[in-house]
Design brief:
The structure is a homohexamer. Chain A is α+β, with helices and mostly antiparallel strands. Helices cover about 40% and strands about 20% of the residues of chain A. Chain A has helices at about 55-60, 100, 115-125, 130-140, 145-150, 165-185, 190-195, 200-205, 215-235, 245-255, 270-295; strands at about 15-30, 35-45, 45-55, 70-80, 80-90, 205-210, 210-215. In chain A, a hairpin with a 1-residue loop joins strand 6 and strand 7 (about 210-215). The longest helix of chain A is centred in the C-terminal third of the chain and has 25 residues, at about 270-295. The two termini of chain A are about 45 Å apart.
Amino acid sequence: MKKDIFVKHITKENMEVNDAFMVVKKGVLSTKNSTKYMNLELRDKTGTIEGKIWDNVDTFNNLFDKNDIVSVKSRSRFYQGRPQLTINDIRKAGENLALADMRMFFAESEAGIDLLKEEYYQFTGQLQEPHMASLFSILNNRKDILEKFFLYPASIGVHHVYMGGLLEHSISLAKMGTHVVHTMGGNVDIVIAGALLHDIGKVEEIEIKGGFRYSDKGRLLGHITLGVMMLEDIIREIPGFPPHIADILLHIIISHHGIEEWGSPKKPMSVEALMVHYLDNLDAKVTGVREHMKENMEDEKWTAYHRLYESRFYKLPEG
Amino acid sequence: MKKDIFVKHITKENMEVNDAFMVVKKGVLSTKNSTKYMNLELRDKTGTIEGKIWDNVDTFNNLFDKNDIVSVKSRSRFYQGRPQLTINDIRKAGENLALADMRMFFAESEAGIDLLKEEYYQFTGQLQEPHMASLFSILNNRKDILEKFFLYPASIGVHHVYMGGLLEHSISLAKMGTHVVHTMGGNVDIVIAGALLHDIGKVEEIEIKGGFRYSDKGRLLGHITLGVMMLEDIIREIPGFPPHIADILLHIIISHHGIEEWGSPKKPMSVEALMVHYLDNLDAKVTGVREHMKENMEDEKWTAYHRLYESRFYKLPEG
Amino acid sequence: MKKDIFVKHITKENMEVNDAFMVVKKGVLSTKNSTKYMNLELRDKTGTIEGKIWDNVDTFNNLFDKNDIVSVKSRSRFYQGRPQLTINDIRKAGENLALADMRMFFAESEAGIDLLKEEYYQFTGQLQEPHMASLFSILNNRKDILEKFFLYPASIGVHHVYMGGLLEHSISLAKMGTHVVHTMGGNVDIVIAGALLHDIGKVEEIEIKGGFRYSDKGRLLGHITLGVMMLEDIIREIPGFPPHIADILLHIIISHHGIEEWGSPKKPMSVEALMVHYLDNLDAKVTGVREHMKENMEDEKWTAYHRLYESRFYKLPEG
Amino acid sequence: MKKDIFVKHITKENMEVNDAFMVVKKGVLSTKNSTKYMNLELRDKTGTIEGKIWDNVDTFNNLFDKNDIVSVKSRSRFYQGRPQLTINDIRKAGENLALADMRMFFAESEAGIDLLKEEYYQFTGQLQEPHMASLFSILNNRKDILEKFFLYPASIGVHHVYMGGLLEHSISLAKMGTHVVHTMGGNVDIVIAGALLHDIGKVEEIEIKGGFRYSDKGRLLGHITLGVMMLEDIIREIPGFPPHIADILLHIIISHHGIEEWGSPKKPMSVEALMVHYLDNLDAKVTGVREHMKENMEDEKWTAYHRLYESRFYKLPEG
Amino acid sequence: MKKDIFVKHITKENMEVNDAFMVVKKGVLSTKNSTKYMNLELRDKTGTIEGKIWDNVDTFNNLFDKNDIVSVKSRSRFYQGRPQLTINDIRKAGENLALADMRMFFAESEAGIDLLKEEYYQFTGQLQEPHMASLFSILNNRKDILEKFFLYPASIGVHHVYMGGLLEHSISLAKMGTHVVHTMGGNVDIVIAGALLHDIGKVEEIEIKGGFRYSDKGRLLGHITLGVMMLEDIIREIPGFPPHIADILLHIIISHHGIEEWGSPKKPMSVEALMVHYLDNLDAKVTGVREHMKENMEDEKWTAYHRLYESRFYKLPEG
Amino acid sequence: MKKDIFVKHITKENMEVNDAFMVVKKGVLSTKNSTKYMNLELRDKTGTIEGKIWDNVDTFNNLFDKNDIVSVKSRSRFYQGRPQLTINDIRKAGENLALADMRMFFAESEAGIDLLKEEYYQFTGQLQEPHMASLFSILNNRKDILEKFFLYPASIGVHHVYMGGLLEHSISLAKMGTHVVHTMGGNVDIVIAGALLHDIGKVEEIEIKGGFRYSDKGRLLGHITLGVMMLEDIIREIPGFPPHIADILLHIIISHHGIEEWGSPKKPMSVEALMVHYLDNLDAKVTGVREHMKENMEDEKWTAYHRLYESRFYKLPEG
């Protein structure tokens, strides 16, 4: 799929905007004169824009649904200082968009997914223990998993809620974990592998369909259980994989939430599992707070109350 | 292995007792005259008995360890009204006792393991849904798993702490679950399969070695995670196994503790999962209380305080 | 009171509908032309219907209140595909409707109250212990209590929220309790009596007035305390009632919520009290989830989030 | 029963001590020469003393049990600086000691039970509301209840663990409650009645037999439920007792622990119930801490750790 | 600042109302004819009143903000039975209103601030221990602190939410604390000083700006930490202040919330700290419930649900 | 004070050992012949050794107490394979040992206190923000604080329980914090200052007297409150110290336990406070687990149960 005009480009009156967008909201209303019109919210990776259909509403209404990628023919106009599209034609752009193409319609990691991939391959390339090296060789050939691991968000609503978020979060843990082992001691291979694998189940827990949402098995089983099954599946292929390494990697996956109340069937029981757990908490919480700060400041210093974290947060003045 | 004389048979002075026992406690002490002697506690399925070694203590000390099965040559005597063995010879009885032979040395389900097996095959034979029927066909051929499932306890210290306890507990759930579906509605195949599989991971979580104890992977991963991997491993072999049935059976395993605080990564989310969870709680708690009542009554009505359950319990007078 | 036309019968335009309904909502509004009209929601056991009063609004406004049973003279019409009543006359239908007459205006147990009553009398008739048999003889003559016990809901908003719900819930526990004792042992008379009595205090905790709501003493004392006082009141009449049976029945009432956090001043301390507690939980939760499923599915598989149960629930596909 | 010599009087060698004591501990031991002797701990209201029986041990062993009141014939001696009794004769002093006679054998309130009774009658005499006045008229004629209310401890091991403790605690609440109403407003009759009745169920929850212990119904039902039944029983006798006063007094009883976790089926919902709850907490905790300070100081400033209160406590230096 | 006409005086049509008010709400709207008008809510200590600006909306819009004190020129009129101001001129009344002047615009303690001050000086004057007497001598000269202590509310939204509330709450504790020491014993100077100082940090935690709100340091540090720093700052000035008194007063401040979950870094560890804690709870909760009762009754007996206290509350009928 | 012979040097029979040790345990016993002797446990930084006094026990008993530093004259002997001292002379070695001299008698950080000091000065030297630089200039001249900060343990019983532990823990946080800011962004000066100051109150919370123990003010106020007062005291000396930096540093101190339940009166509300909190948790827990592993392994893989951490821990096999 090709896309040239992005929301951020629509800065003038009367531009011709014929391109693909994702439908985020869709509603049919009536004017005072009882003529129907349609209100849309359209999105791509650079932002959202309102769209209006004034003619043939019933016809177009059948040609696409909410959450579809649509081809739009339209002209821009400004209303109350904000750009808007007057749409002449709109229809679904085709089934089953490839995940890579999805990137055009969602925000993504500011760290840069390509850079993150490079860092990922550096980490997997530097593992000394041969069986863990094999594990990632196999994983790196599982293109179905890997593509999702590179492009999925790390959560659907709390932290790293953007494409590449899962990778960014995993790399951040691997970096900080390497340094923590450097400072405090521990098995660096286990910490790196644990950091990269701890959330791997999220590629089956989450699905991208209009927005980020949970799959059925995601809701029923969760990323911890799904990650266990995925890792077990790979380890099975590696002859002579040491059971104690298998056990500790699986243990890191199931214990990374730290306590039972947060969905971990076991608390972390090894030094390396403790490291992954605390760094996961640190990275998720700090990133989640920053995402909250981006959109929910009440004044220049304080955010609105964060329901999940049960607090307001304070933005230190610069300098 | 053959065993003729059990602890419960040792009721007289001066019986010749040459047979196999398990060593539960072992200690070397000195008399006032500084001669060494050895104190033992020996066990088989019928009870425990004290043993004394007065001669060649150092020699025998090297021939066996605590938790070994030993061959003993001895004579009985009575001390303070209780039988005791004066041991003339003792040595380890051989490595790697088969699990079936273990039954001679541990208490077992009063319900009768053979009867419970019959009931088990009846339940697996009456499943209507063909894929679940296949699942149990495969499981019933996995003799390594099945033998342990038939003979293991359901826990190492809280409830059903005897051989066959895991089977007894699972059958009890299947029976009550069948009736509950009869009363309240629901999918009886799912409830029966869930009842029989919910604790299947315990055959890898527990190991029997002298006593019931946790394996390394048992401590690191727990029976919920181990059960998930075992079930996934079987389902993989069945072509066309419906994903939603796989998901719900796995979900029953991971949710059967009911809440996150008790180690379930997900709360029960379907009617059938709720049924297995509550019946599991009921069967485990009632049986655990009864086992506590057997050994910890403070008077004819009240038990001692139960640390885990945080209560005393009251035994209703008969009649 | 007599009632012929029920909401479910109103399926055509222009039917004459002169009958009794309960007023669920009542509001006076103004049209654009500043003429007043009244909007009503009317209910009987088969459903709810909207009503409109276009004339003499002020007059009718004084003739009835929200939550009253009213006599209505009206004609049906359809608006946006749904039936509606245009009301010509409406006034309160009389004070103090008998509880039995209330059944015309509320949904009720699908199990059938008459069938449930039969089952109730079977259970109370099969008690072997003579004092418990006496207890129910007395209760069965307390028509004031019994009528409410047969017709009240089991809760005002969580589970079994319909007439006959309290009876249905109690019978369900008695049935499952009988089977559980059959499987696990225990005193069947105590379990049946406990199942039937555990929520008896709800007949004083709840009152029916327009809808199901708490009485003052219900809010201040709760059904556990009210049940204790009601049971004590009956036991007092029975000469020689064994104190330990009185104590255990009262204990089942106060412990049936299972833990202090849920309002039980004591945890269940006997096998029979544990059974009633777990079966109560099971029956209430499963029924509550099913009621939630009836009205709150987000798609064909998943319910909306349930605030009290803190979860979504999954409806297993049939077949 | 008459008693002249109390433990505190035994201050010299070779006193003749022929009087009644309570047996707190009783054990038969053997000397190195294998002659049996008996070790006793004897108690009265002034303290405990050790007793030794050197002759006819088997005979005397059958004449009394632990927790009995015994008649002793003995002589005092000093061993390692502490008095001891050498006992020549000992036997049970008679069945069913009256509660008033029990006072000779237990520590009691330093406030003085007679003074506390006076204060009690002052409080009950000053109630303005006639039905509450009637309530206490009836209660004050229930000698069975009242004697226990005057003499029982307020708990068996946490606070006010001495005879008269229940009365002392109740009076303290009534006094402070009166002042709190004076400062903050509220219904003083309700607060006084609530203060005096809130723990009334303890006279059935506790029994005195050798020491303070729970009765069966105490363990199964607890003083909250027992208090409800006792109060209901009295109110029933008073024609025209206003239901809202009955409800609020019962509500104060069931809510006085403040939250469900502490065994209150309802939280306090009225101003008066809040007052009784907080003053109960204050009086119980401060008194409990002081009793802990009396016997468990680790140095002049700090107590040992208090398991229930989960803290050490600090004794402010005087002056 | 001078103010003659208060909201409660505006009881007639067409009064000339030229005086100062606080702006509580401010919004610009359009009529159907697209002419702008402004809607205001104005407040002084006697209540709130609506204001309308029909002319020169844009001009006036720039002359004041929400939360400002404004000078208003206006005439009253009645709309739907309630008074309203038609405003001809409005502008900010000056910067930095003195705290004493703020009293004209906020509700204040019904106990009367002047009376409360007298009581405060009585309490501080009766302290026997000379160092604590010095402490309050210094504090009573810190006019910056003292003025706020006399005029601030005790919280911004739960209890004593009015001017003088902090003083009223502190005096109430000192009174009840004196009586509690009278009844139960303890160090009365410590209890009085602790009662008066426990919430002293609130004068830095809260700021008054339009309404009561938290300062930055209030949110980041809280009144417990701020109170510790303020008290330490004063104690530092007193030569020979006994360390154990300093420690216990600071301890009362940090422990007065009672448990860690409520933000106290230490639980109360002395009798006096326990007294301040429980009386603080009692006074805050009872007063909070009464403030809730003033504005949130659902009927004559029951309040609406209180989110923080997680309950409805019951108002005892008078008499 | 000078000390030449350390416990680890006492490896042979009959060595002359005349040197200083700390008395850890002290008890007087009797032999079978009723002659008194004294049993001691003596300690220095290299370990503990038993000591025996056979003569003049009563005399020596008056010359020293438990927890004193003593001068000993003795000879070594071996008993059951372990060295022991037969003591001929022993007496207190002088009052008020300097803290630096204490190092001879306690274990200390394996990281090396001198190296840690260097790292400390590097961190304080690299702060860019001038007021924070001033803050540490002042602190670094407060030799009373600094010496304790360099030599104290980080806790009395959980983690870093050795001299220099507080410094080691603080430096570890500063190092990891620097790297975390490098990876995730944030204000590095605040994180370093917060890392170094977060536990500063421990130098007043803990005292060293025989062993590590809490001071009175440590128990009453805790290191969070004490740290606040110490930091405030220094900041007061720095003209123009920016209030928002003061607030955030104080906030880091009070929030570093993360949640109220763990004694933090405020949750971390800024990114930097979150970082210090999570790294504190990580460093304390991992170090605490390793200290537990040093002394409490049950076999080569598993530790004993850790009561505070509520888990066993698993030691990954090397290689």
